[in-house]
């Protein structure tokens, strides 16, 4: 299985249930994606990856994005398209780059296509767009709701690149399942995650381990410790990840 296969399996019992609920305590934003809604965003983004970016399986995308619901979409869209994600990777060594506004200067070093994710509340377009960048929020709605890759994406294809090496789709699925088992995570859980998605532990906690068992995630950026107890209650959180 690939990470995209995990998503399909997790969605199958009830596609309308929550997949990711995102909070940004600095802006007051709250966005909830069901499995169905997330799949729609993922398909549109994967189509943008292969059409606007002309990315092909095996290409590397430096992903310079913080914890956010759109970051979850980009991880899964890249894996759906067979593209390798390099979280916080060097744009100068990547085929393409995807960044938030804070990474624009760094992203300019990429010789391939450059995408700005504005990170504005509710997915609003950028107020100003740097030369040489696509505005993800403005472009992605026009893409199709269904995606078919150029060639089948297999679990032996490279999926994630970090300084320590490259992991295949099968590696990520195995790590997701092993971590979910270690943490005792089940499909009935609703997990609160405040760890950065760009870190290995954050990616497991905020996306891969919950996907492995079909759990849902409450993902928090700029988390206000004073707000978390109330959030745990209102969102019916059963677990905080990573444990401890």
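Sequence proposed for the structure above (244 residues):
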């Amino acid at each position: 299985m690939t990470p995209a296969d995990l998503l399909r399996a997790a969605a199958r019992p009830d596609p309308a249930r929550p997949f990711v609920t995102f909070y940004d305590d600095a802006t007051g934003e709250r966005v909830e994606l069901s499995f169905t809604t997330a799949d729609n965003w993922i398909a549109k983004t994967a189509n943008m990856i292969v059409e606007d970016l002309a990315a092909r399986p095996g290409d590397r995308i430096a992903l310079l994005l913080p914890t956010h619901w759109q970051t979850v979409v980009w991880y899964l869209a890249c894996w759906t398209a067979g593209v390798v994600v390099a979280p916080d990777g060097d744009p100068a060594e990547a085929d393409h780059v995807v960044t938030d506004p804070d990474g624009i200067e760094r992203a300019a070093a990429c010789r391939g296509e450059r995408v700005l994710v504005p990170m504005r509340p509710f997915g609003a377009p950028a107020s100003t767009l740097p030369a040489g960048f696509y505005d993800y929020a403005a472009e992605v709605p026009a893409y199709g709701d269904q995606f078919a890759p150029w060639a089948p994406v297999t679990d032996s294809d490279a999926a994630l690149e970090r300084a320590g090496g490259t992991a295949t789709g099968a590696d990520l699925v195995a790590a997701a399942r092993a971590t979910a088992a270690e943490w005792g995570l089940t499909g009935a859980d609703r997990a609160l995650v405040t760890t950065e998605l760009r870190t290995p532990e954050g990616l497991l906690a905020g996306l891969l381990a919950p996907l492995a068992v079909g759990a849902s995630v409450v993902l928090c950026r700029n988390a206000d410790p004073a707000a978390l107890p109330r959030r745990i209650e209102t969102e019916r959180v059963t677990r905080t990840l990573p444990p401890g």
